[in-house]
Amino acid sequence: MAGLDINALQQMLNPRADDSDSEDEGGPTPGDIGTNRSTTKHKIPDITPSTVKKVPDGKEIWDTEFVAEGVTTDHDETRPTPDYDLRFKQNVGTEDLFLGMSGKHPGTNDEIVLTINLPGAKSADIDLNVTDERVDCWTSSFALRLHLPKPVLSAQGSAQWVTDKEQLRLTLPLKREFDFLP
User: Fold this and answer.
1) Can you state the percent helix, strand and coil of the chain, rounding each to 5?
2) Separation of CA 7 from chain center
3) Nearest-angstrom CA–CA distance, 156 and 131
């Protein structure tokens, strides 16, 4: 009986060409699952838009049409950049300090505090524009265009003019994606 079992095993592993179970007949194979085996060739459509802009000529690296809305492209600013200090602030309460219950660690920040020194300026002379990613501050003698290191909630921010130091202090809460998680 052992000889018959070995012969049956040999036939299963090495089928003969005249066997009807061979895959050479052109039947479906596992590789055919999910594919369309039609013999007609389909032409791949050309999806290149007809409105593709060409690279600007000369030394320009971008065209004004590609610049995002709200970004100025005049690079001939002659006013100096004022001194400024950008710091991250973490709001810490007693539950954080003594019990460590809020899950805050030294890397979690709540706000950005930006202090801009504007000597000789008055609060009425300051033109300020704050977006979620950028701060623009202009006076008659200074111009600051600053991209923020992290996105902020600009609508919830606050500005304070410190008269005796001639400083503008902006407090901008950070936009964090996962605040809703416990």
Assistant:
1) 20, 25, 60
2) 64
3) 11
The C-alpha atoms of residue 24 and residue 49 are separated, in whole angstroms, by 46
Integer Cα distance of 168 and 155 in angstroms: 17
For 60-86, how does the pLDDT look when each residue is reduced to its tens digit (9 = 90+)?
666 666 555 555 545 567 889 999 999
pTM above 0.70, yes or no: no
Which runs of E-coded beta strand occur in the chain? 84-89, 111-117, 127-130, 134-138, 143-147, 158-162, 167-173
Q: How far apart are CA 140 and CA 82, in angstroms?
A: 12
Most distant CA atoms of the chain, gap in Å: 107
CA atoms within 13 A on the CB side of 68: 4
